[in-house]
Amino acid sequence: MPTNSKKTTANPAHGRRRELLATAAEVFATQGYNATTVRRIADEAGLLAGSLYYHFDSKESMLDEILSGFLDELWTGYDAVLDAGLGPRETIEALVTESFREIDRHRAAVAIYQKESRHLVTQPRFGYLVDSQRKFEKAWLGTLERGVADGSFRADLDIRLAYRFVRDTVWVAASWYRPGGTHSPEEIARQYLSMVLDGIAGREPAA
Amino acid sequence: MPTNSKKTTANPAHGRRRELLATAAEVFATQGYNATTVRRIADEAGLLAGSLYYHFDSKESMLDEILSGFLDELWTGYDAVLDAGLGPRETIEALVTESFREIDRHRAAVAIYQKESRHLVTQPRFGYLVDSQRKFEKAWLGTLERGVADGSFRADLDIRLAYRFVRDTVWVAASWYRPGGTHSPEEIARQYLSMVLDGIAGREPAA
Amino acid sequence: MPTNSKKTTANPAHGRRRELLATAAEVFATQGYNATTVRRIADEAGLLAGSLYYHFDSKESMLDEILSGFLDELWTGYDAVLDAGLGPRETIEALVTESFREIDRHRAAVAIYQKESRHLVTQPRFGYLVDSQRKFEKAWLGTLERGVADGSFRADLDIRLAYRFVRDTVWVAASWYRPGGTHSPEEIARQYLSMVLDGIAGREPAA
Amino acid sequence: MPTNSKKTTANPAHGRRRELLATAAEVFATQGYNATTVRRIADEAGLLAGSLYYHFDSKESMLDEILSGFLDELWTGYDAVLDAGLGPRETIEALVTESFREIDRHRAAVAIYQKESRHLVTQPRFGYLVDSQRKFEKAWLGTLERGVADGSFRADLDIRLAYRFVRDTVWVAASWYRPGGTHSPEEIARQYLSMVLDGIAGREPAA
DNA sequence: TATGAATGAGAGTTCATTCAT
DNA sequence: GATGAATGAACTCTCATTCAT
């Protein structure tokens, strides 16, 4: 028996789990959770449907592991930003950049989250989604409010509307983003920030 | 002769169909198409599952009718805007406003479209979704290009990115919009346009 | 109000019934009883499925009326032959000829009978099918036995086998017979009788 | 080492399929394909309806496998006869004998074929039925024609009528034949051939 | 670890039948 | 006589899950 079995990559068993979860996430993202059969995941992974149950309790537990894994990493990044003591504008910039990085690394999980979270939040098992949403909203709303207060952001904003605007604008990108494309996540973040912060209108309006 | 005989309710047969489609759309939007059972729709409509098949060929044909009905109305509005000979900026403003009006009138259909269109486009039956998407892209991209050319929009925009930005930004609103709320569609459109066109940053950056 | 309404064709109501039964018989024969939907019959007859229930109690009662109507006419013809006091060979000839006449007049009913009688006989409602079969077997077997006894038929016949041979040979013709073709029923009967009685082999065997 | 390892039971997976197909064939033959529920087959086989779908794609694919399996074996036998270079009369004798052997081995499949082929031929999936029918007709008609030409068969025959006569006469036997009865297939074939070739009439007509 | 076979609940759909109008 | 709408039972089929091997 291995002595350091708690490490992630060191454990071959964990390696297999990850592979299977990655496969499952890809299929969930493409077809939707409900429309995905356990058989399809197994096919894609090269084993039989029943064999997946050696690794996971249920289809739902795969989904759970995918989403919670993603959220854990997301909050590691977000918390680092929020704890850095940046100004409102720089915080928004950092959060948006971090978000695109997460989309880059967890595209499938993000896509699943977008499609499925609305009805998952009603299930006790996925209570952490509600917690995450609340924390998320608090972080963004708070930053926007601070920014309006100190003049970083326009005073005439409907804050809740602006929050939804920025939030959706960023995350929906997961629906079309393909890792390894021409733009790096940071590059996309920069362009998005440019549009969100300064708008798309020309400085000198057309005659 | 009645003065209001041109209204939809004049045809009782079509009235029932509409009611049932509205019910189905609501459930599809809430639970997702795949996760929605025909029995659930029937329950909600107050009849038995089998009875729905007197009115519709299949669950899929309900979805079809909902989406095509929505797109028909959408394009009536869009075409009116596109044929009006407006400048690029005014066109974008009119399209965004029209979009929020459609979200107001077809909230469920829009939500369904957002969630399901990605895999529906692969089915021949829903080929019109592809057509619509192409036409949609052409209208928005073209307007943005014209606007960059005449200085209405910033010259340094990545046009495709800007297109996705505006497109998603508007339509995702269907996921949280509730008709009859405090903001009218036109009011929301105005605020969105303000953010999209001029950004959320303050004019005088914070010290 | 008509004074002689008890006659068959005189009563317009009966006329409608007959039309509908003829339509139903045609569809039953083509598709099989089970595979035929009441809606299909109604379509073919130019009314709605529910409306058939003004004329008939049930789908099964249509089948019943078709089969019993056919058997009534069949036995009128058969009884006339059997009561005519003919010799065995002439009796067989007359029965076969009469059978082809019935196939000509009741093709659909005969086809239905062939396909469905086997499982219908188990239902009490169709008990008359069993009676008819018994009477049928008695008539044919008896005639064959008489014929063997008086030398009309070969002495080395397995009578039961010969009975099945003649019976099937005749009635299966309903599966390909089309009224109004080049051969009259009497002509077909003559050719069949020639084969059944004298065989298809050449008189002088080929070297 | 087992001496009979070449038998079908050597492959356990195929063994189960065969069992299930045999059960299905029996029920289809008895009740008719349409009237047979998948549940009934499952009951008869001792498992649940859904479990059948582990082995077969659909009810229709069971039917398909039953019929194509039967036709494959039938044509193996027929082709051997047709390739043997026999004279017309001997060919007919061999084909009839082979047919009764097939009825003996595939009674259920033959009965199903008789009842269902007429509407199955319209479905593309069962196109091979049409092919088989054409080949069948060609083989029998050709043999009869050759026989008329060389005097083996009567010159005054309507060939098509004779073809149908022989064809039906043989295959309808599947509707009453029960394997393991008093007559072997070869014995029945001999008696049938005697009737078909030489007729049932006595040599010396009754005075 | 993985397979092959089965389970059982529930899905979408069909259809004979009913009945108020 | 016929329609339009609905019923309710049954059907074929799907699928997450289990378990002996």
TrEMBL record, chains A, B, C, D:
Pfam families: TetR_C_24 (PF17932), TetR_N (PF00440). Keywords: DNA-binding, Repressor, Transcription, Transcription regulation. Residues 14-74 form the HTH tetR-type domain. Residues 37-56 bind DNA. The keyword Repeat does not apply. InterPro entries: Homeodomain-like_sf, HTH-type_TetR-like_transc_reg, HTH_TetR, KstR2_TetR_C, Tet_transcr_reg_TetR-rel_C_sf. It comes from the Bacteria. PANTHER family: HTH-TYPE TRANSCRIPTIONAL REGULATOR RUTR, HTH-TYPE TRANSCRIPTIONAL REPRESSOR KSTR2. This is AcrR family transcriptional regulator. It comes from Streptomyces syringium.
